[in-house]
Write a structure and sequence with these properties.
With about 525 residues, the chain is α+β, with helices and mostly antiparallel strands. It is built from 18 helices and 24 strands. Strand 18 and strand 19 form a beta hairpin.
Length: about 525
């Protein structure tokens, strides 16, 4: 009877269950969606009971679709959205809806923590500055704004760890997910007593933390009845979504980096040692691989910039796509491919929703710079692709400055399907790219971690060697020298425009709501 593995992703839009065999072949991939609540501008919340209901359905449907019995499932791995605050009372009941990773209400609490603790202590104790998305400022927000809820808190969990609690009755997290709380000593891979003391947060509120492939708990009888899994099935620590996704594509050794072109852009690098960017411009988290860390740079609008361009200026191409059945992005990039590298002096800053790496600036905005009478829509299209590529290079340069070797770059995400965009990336980076055969993302990596914990694979490296294969390569082209000239000009624009971004934001705020 061959062993099967299940990875569960408690994502932002739905709970996804991926069921694989020991060779890594996907037998079923099922997602059940749930709502997000925005009771006020910039707030984002979800009901943890929705995650649990969707997870039950996804597991049952995956088992049914794959025609796999509960006895054949060797292990379960968990992953999901990071940073969210799930507050439980002493009976394990949810006290309020989860405050999510993309909720922005906690800017004042972040400022308070930074002022009280000091940026150097934050970097020394946690490896990262405190950001509105992280968990600690959410706890302070509840303390200040919902004291009746705060008084009843007995446990604080992250989203995937709440689902673990529902599956097993155990309170556990893993080192990679805990790294994004602003309460974790990333270098020592344990909760930071210094941060807990500074913020007056009880240690007993926090779950036990394990390494990602370690069996942390087992499916209990109640969850077995609901999900169709076997009571006693091991559940491993799992990992935050980015760490798990990078296990799934083989970014598990120093020198290997992934560049993901999703709505946001993520540059993720495995590291043998604990490295912290001196100004906190890169996230420094524990990896889902025991004894390893990772560095991560995040661009807020990567493929999201291209989608904005399509929606704002691509009416003709969308109509053509509707008539011919072509992909609208293919139509846009075919035309952009006829434009020379550098777009004849046109640059695009992809800061449509502010930026995080290397400029943590919510006021930054998108810019086309260098427009002339020669420029047409294909120039603007290519400038968007090039601007995002320059922005991703910013993260690579920060990693190189920390002494991190970069020997292989894996291109991921929807944007990486574009031949033109992959070529632009390779030329901007002056380094070739590869693509891999794995496309299921974080839950696939969680399933591999479950396989290690269940003894299907000897370790994470063996799991990745078993299932991950290079599926394509993009070499460096002739445009590298062109981009080498344009990249410094791109870099100079933010510094020149930063004061005006701030001034413009103040003008917009002053006139908000006026006729």
């Amino acid at each position: 009877m061959p062993p099967y593995l299940i990875g569960i992703d408690v994502g932002t839009t739905g709970s996804k269950a991926v069921l694989i065999d020991a060779d890594g072949t996907v037998k079923a991939s099922i997602t059940n969606e749930y709502p997000m609540y925005t009771p006020y501008p910039a707030w984002s919340e979800q009901d943890p009971s929705d995650w649990w209901t969707a997870t039950i359905a996804s597991i049952r449907q995956a088992l049914e679709k794959a025609e796999v019995s509960a006895q054949q499932v060797a292990g379960v791995g968990l992953t999901g959205q990071m940073h969210g605050l799930v507050a439980l009372d002493a009976q394990g009941q949810v006290l309020r809806r989860c405050i999510m990773w993309n909720d922005q209400r906690t800017a004042p609490q972040c400022a308070t923590i930074t002022r009280q603790v000091g940026i150097q202590n934050l970097l020394r104790w946690t490896g990262n500055p405190v950001l509105p998305g992280f968990t600690a400022p959410k706890i302070l927000w509840v303390r200040e704004n919902e004291p009746e809820v705060y008084r009843r808190i007995a446990k604080v969990l992250l989203p995937k760890d709440y689902v673990r609690y529902c599956l097993t009755g155990g309170f556990f997290s893993d080192v990679s997910d805990a790294s994004g709380t602003s309460l974790f000593d990333v270098g020592q891979r344990r909760w930071s007593e210094d941060m807990l003391k500074a913020l007056d947060i009880p240690r007993e509120w926090l779950p036990e933390v394990t390494e990602s492939p370690v069996v942390s708990a087992r499916i209990n009888a109640a969850a077995a009845r609901l999900t169709g899994l076997l009571e006693g099935t091991p559940v491993v620590g799992g990992g935050g979504d980015n760490a798990a996704a990078n296990v799934g594509v083989g970014v598990i050794r120093e020198g290997v980096v992934s560049v993901s072109l999703g709505t946001s852009g993520v540059v993720f690098a495995a590291s043998d040692t604990y490295r912290v960017e001196p100004e906190g411009k890169l996230h420094a988290f524990c990896h889902a691989v025991p004894g390893m860390w990772h560095l991560m740079g995040v661009m807020l609008s990567a493929a999201g910039s291209f989608r904005w361009f399509r929606d704002a200026l691509g009416d003709t191409e969308m109509a053509q796509a509707s008539e011919t059945g072509q992909d609208v992005y293919d139509i846009l990039t075919e035309k952009a491919a006829q434009v020379p590298a550098g777009c004849e002096g046109l640059l695009f800053l992809p800061y449509l929703t502010g930026e995080r790496t290397p400029y943590p600036d919510p006021d930054a905005r998108g810019v086309f710079f260098g427009l002339s009478l020669r420029h047409r829509k294909p120039h603007l299209t290519r400038a968007v692709l090039e601007g995002v590529s320059y922005g991703l290079r910013d993260s690579l340069e920060l990693m190189k400055n920390l002494g991190l070797p970069i020997q292989q770059i894996i291109a991921l995400g929807g944007g990486a399907r574009s031949t033109l965009w992959r070529q632009i990336l390779a030329d901007v980076f002056n380094m070739g790219l590869v693509t891999v055969n794995v496309t299921e993302g974080a839950p696939y990596g969680a399933a591999l971690l479950a396989g290690v914990g269940a003894g299907v694979y000897q370790d994470v490296a063996t799991a990745c060697q078993t299932v991950v294969r290079v599926s394509g390569e993009t070499g460096v082209g002739a445009a590298t020298s062109v981009y080498a000239d344009y990249y410094p000009r791109y870099r100079a624009l933010y510094a020149a425009l930063a004061p005006e971004f701030k001034a413009l934001a103040e003008v917009v705020a002053r006139h908000a709501g006026s006729a």
